[in-house]
Design goal:
heterodimer; A: 117 residues; mainly beta; six-stranded mixed sheet; four-stranded antiparallel sheet; 12 strands; 0% helix; 51% strand; B: 116 residues; 52% strand; globular
Chain lengths: 117, 116
Amino acid sequence: AQTVTQSQPEMSVQEAETVTLSCTYDTSESDYYLFWYKQPPSRQMILVIRQEAYKQQNATENRFSVNFQKAAKSFSLKISDSQLGDAAMYFCAYRSGNNNAGNMLTFGGGTRLMVKP
Amino acid sequence: KAGVTQTPRYLIKTRGQQVTLSCSPISGHRSVSWYQQTPGQGLQFLFEYFSETQRNKGNFPGRFSGRQFSNSRSEMNVSTLELGDSALYLCASSFTQTLAYATEAFFGQGTRLTVV
């Protein structure tokens, strides 16, 4: 079974600065997908960024980028120019590329990000 | 395009009762997954339905069940409620054209269930 670990329960960052959230995972599969989801106080999970394991290039979405290290099984999220609206819980998630696994996501424990004005 | 809709948003039930939660996926999405979120256990996968068939099931007791209708709407049922079932229940839908390919999951706002 796959596991996802987020070792930072809480992080804080000054507005306009950069912060990196860590995520490691354990899997024996070679084909899989990784995601970062944001959960603000409204509770709705919002997809921030996704990475396919077969792609060597790190994904980027505006101020959000990832550092995907497949050999190290590491998938960190970098938020640049942090904004007050970035304050939320961030979850790292894994989805198998195995057809039988369907869309099941395995989540890490989450990192609460606080943004200081 | 409407997002994933979960009803009700809040629910209070008594121990021993049963409860049914509803999820309407994004139009065109055929896969619906359910997750339980608690402070202690985090986010845990309950089950996934695709084209009215349960495709995967997490490690939950048989008191937790679900189904999917022909319009892709899904319900989950919890029978004989226990205090530990108090949680946020999240539904997610995905556009899965075939079993071999799927896009990311889009989540609803959840149903907050409190068992007293």
